[in-house]
């Protein structure tokens, strides 16, 4: 478990990988930073860097968050704030290859109530069969998210909306086209939106076009619908969009049900 890099602080406090490795599933994966980073590390001779195409369990994955939980519990008494963890930044939490390990991951998440786990996937159709038996309307410390890069993948938002959870979020990084006006028909039931990410893990030559207006449209839609909007570190000028930092995040408070039950009904 690691503290979030400076670029991502604000979006989450920590990152944690239960397992590493993935398979490219759609256009947004083309320049996946996990593939780029792990491949270059292997080429540079780094030891113990697994093949990014193979899903591999991380040693100590179910233990290293426990000291952070204790620290968060102590800090909570002082600043009344929970800590957030972005899970599986170098993989996908719902990959079938990780089925044998996921129960242990859920158990660990249950044991860390002072950590708010942000879990995002490009495969929301795999979630339902991989929730723990006691999930109910969602663990109070888990936010489920999905990322969408093209209009043809907006149905991921609809798939996720059918899953009960305390907070649903959407990540539009990278965006590869303007998602409006269709996005407005798919975003209800979501409690947080991150956006603005252009492709980062590639050279300027390889980078696909990214028009800031696409992100402005997402920002304006969120303002209209009252959804907190976070512009990522790779938005316009750094994380500034038209000179403004958008760093809204829902309160990190598991007892407050900000999200929605299945089908987007308010709780
Ligand atoms: S789903 Fe995520 S981790 Fe997996 S290849 Fe695509 S971008 Fe990379």
Verbal overview:
- The protein is α/β, with parallel strands linked by helices and about 270 residues long.
- It has one domain.
- Helices cover about 20% and strands about 15% of the residues.
- An 8-stranded mixed β-sheet has the order 1-2-5-6-7-8-9-10.
- Mean pLDDT is about 90; it is low at about 255-260.
- The chain binds iron/sulfur cluster.
Quickly list its features.
two-stranded antiparallel sheet; 267 residues; 22% helix; binds iron/sulfur cluster; alpha/beta; 8-stranded mixed β-sheet
Helices and strands in order:
Elements: E1 2-3, E2 14-16, E3 19-20, H1 33-43, E4 56-57, H2 65-79, E5 83-87, H3 99-110, E6 115-121, E7 142-147, H4 155-161, E8 167-172, E9 192-195, H5 212-225, E10 229-231, E11 240-241, E12 244-245
Parallel strand pairs: 2-5, 5-6, 6-7, 7-8, 8-9, 9-10
Antiparallel strand pairs: 1-2, 3-4, 11-12
The structure holds iron/sulfur cluster.
**Beta-strand content bin:** 15-25%
Work out the count of structural domains.
1
Structural class: alpha/beta
Low-confidence stretches: 257-261
User: Can you give the helix content as a percent range?
Assistant: 10-25%
Q: How does the overall form come out from the CA principal axes?
A: globular
How many angstroms separate the termini? 32 Å
User: How do the strands of the widest beta sheet line up side by side?
Assistant: 1-2-5-6-7-8-9-10
Helices and strands, in N-to-C order?
EEEHEHEHEEHEEHEEE
Radius of gyration: 18 Å
Largest sheet: number of strands, sense, barrel closure = 8 strands, mixed
Find the count of extended strands (DSSP E, 2+ residues). Answer: 12
How confident overall, as mean pLDDT? 90
Q: Total helix count?
A: 5
Instruction: Name every ligand kind in the structure.
Output: iron/sulfur cluster
